[in-house]
Design brief:
single chain, about 130 residues, alpha+beta, Immunoglobulin-like, 5-stranded antiparallel β-sheet, about 50% strand
Length: about 130
């Protein structure tokens, strides 16, 4: 009798474990997507707006914990970090002026909803 009860309890435990795994697999959140937008032409000593459009699936992320832009000139070891301001509709931005012509890169460090994404985009200052 004890063996039958033990066997029944084991079967119930295994069935309960399988159903929890299926529920967890169905609730995987969509990835955090970040699109960095930079003007096509940026002139030296002219203000430029750099934006990060943040989405999760079809939803625009309005509640990012942190959006930070790291700007670095090619060939230099140092970079400058600036906090992005929320503009609405999932867009975060900075406004900056580049003092020297050259090739630069910007990395948008975005933390939201327990995820982190950091795409990098290169651009040229003329």
């Amino acid at each position: 009798m004890r063996k039958a009860i033990f066997l029944f309890a084991c079967v119930l435990f295994l069935l309960a474990g399988c159903s929890k795994e299926n529920d967890a697999a169905e609730k995987v959140p969509e990835l955090l997507e970040v699109s960095v937008n930079i003007p096509e032409v940026i002139q030296e000593n002219q203000e430029a707006v750099i934006q990060a459009a943040v989405t999760q699936g079809e939803e625009k992320v309005e509640d990012a914990n942190e959006v930070k832009f790291e700007v670095k000139k090619a060939g230099q070891d140092t970079s400058e970090e600036m906090i992005g301001e929320h503009q609405g509709k999932g867009v975060y931005s900075i406004t900056t002026t580049f003092q020297e012509a050259g090739i630069y890169s910007v990395t948008a460090h975005v933390t939201a909803r327990g995820m982190h994404n950091m795409p990098t985009k290169e651009f040229k200052i003329e």
